[in-house]
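Q: Joint fold for the lines below.
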Amino acid sequence: MPNRCKAIIFDLDNTLIDFMKMKQLACRAAVDAMIRAGLKSDRKKALSLIFNLYDRYGYEYKEIFQALLREMTGSVDYGIVGAGIAAYRKTRESGLLVPYPKVRETLARLRKRGIRLAVVTDAPKIEAWIRLAAMGIQNEFDVVITYEDSKVKKPSTKPFLMALKKMKVRPEEAMVVGDSVTKDIEPGNKIGAVTVLAKYGEKKKNRKKFGNEKSARPSFQIKRFSDILKLV
Ligand SMILES: [Mg+2]
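A: Joint structure:
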């Protein structure tokens, strides 16, 4: 560890929250509903196709079930797509949000070591707090900076600097942890913090080769959230 770590700034989505888990559960419910509505496939085959399509079109792609039907049958049956979307939304809106393994324990142990903890996220304020509360970790942080607080999105360094100012910690004494090279690692490097890439949260499509770009290279990479304990 190149400096003494006094504070850690975490990204929220795909760093603390396991968004993929929610996505998997929602897609499983959707596939089951589409099969009940007449889709001729087994669950496993349809699910693996959906995730291939997500890799191709991105995880925010809104017409995934239409694409699935086109791929499987050559046309779109809207009765089946409607059933899939309804089941998907029902699961998503049930507020089912799961932190990655050992998030709660690790945060508690970091706090016990006297390290200040922050969240910096582009999510709207109410969304961020709903997600933190749904995971039961809303009281673990000294500072939470959302889009409304900074009025600017990452990769701006402003939200990170705001969090540090509130915690009265200098950038060199801080660590920035996130799953995105462009939104977390680059601004973290820019302000002079130690940066940690959360490999477990990286989407295949976003994976970026660091190459020779020093600005994009994280100080450390972790495969599990709890590996942070080894770095402080
Ligand atoms: Mg993220």
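Q: Anything notable?
A: The pocket of magnesium ion is lined by residues 11, 13-15, 178-180 (CB under 6 Å). Residues 151 and 159 are 8 Å apart (CA to CA).
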